[in-house]
Amino acid sequence: MNLKERAKKLKTDIPAIFLALKDKETPIIAKIFAGITVAYALSPIDLIPDFIPVLGYLDDVILLPAFVALTIKFIPNDILEKNRKLSEGMWENGKPKKWYYAIPIVLIWILIVIWILKCIFG
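^ that's the sequence the OP posted. Answer follows.
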């Protein structure tokens, strides 16, 4: 599978994971990973900002596909396929961007800053 096919599959898997998160049949552990994946995918800010050369795009190329792959491992195949069919064309006009999806990323950055300050000032 080439890079273009993987990107297209990623665009169809994220809405399916979003629907699986809301599905009552999805196991709890899968919902936890789906919540993390969806929050990261829909966050208007990245863990590593895109303006940082090379590293800024690595999170989009490595982290998001890794989150998606890990989440899919926990979702039973029948539930995933059902939600893939339901999600076809779901976000054709682009994924939704809500400010509250950024909360986990902001919290991670706050924890990193606090940790750095503790290391510097003891």
